[in-house]
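User: I'm putting together a teaching handout on how sequence relates to shape, and I'd like one worked example. Could you take CopG family transcriptional regulator from Pyrodictium delaneyi, show the sequence you're using, and then write out its predicted structure as tokens right after it?

Assistant: Happy to. First the sequence, then the structure tokens directly below it.
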Amino acid sequence: MSEKVSIQISRELYEKAKKFIEEQGGFQSVEELVEFLLQEALLTEETGSAEMSREDEEKVKERLRALGYI
């Protein structure tokens, strides 16, 4: 796994993310949610579309299953 660095977000945004995780599940921590969202946003920016690798697609499907959507 890659070395981790710290970032700062507002307390309000942190609490919203924490509440989302508590209600929806699928993530173990706010840090995990933020990392996932950043990866998705950067992937879209890099490719110019929302195309995903098979591995990324499986990760998304696993998350959706954990959330009860599929």
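A couple of points you could highlight for students: The chain has a mean pLDDT of 84. DSSP finds three helices and no strands in the chain.
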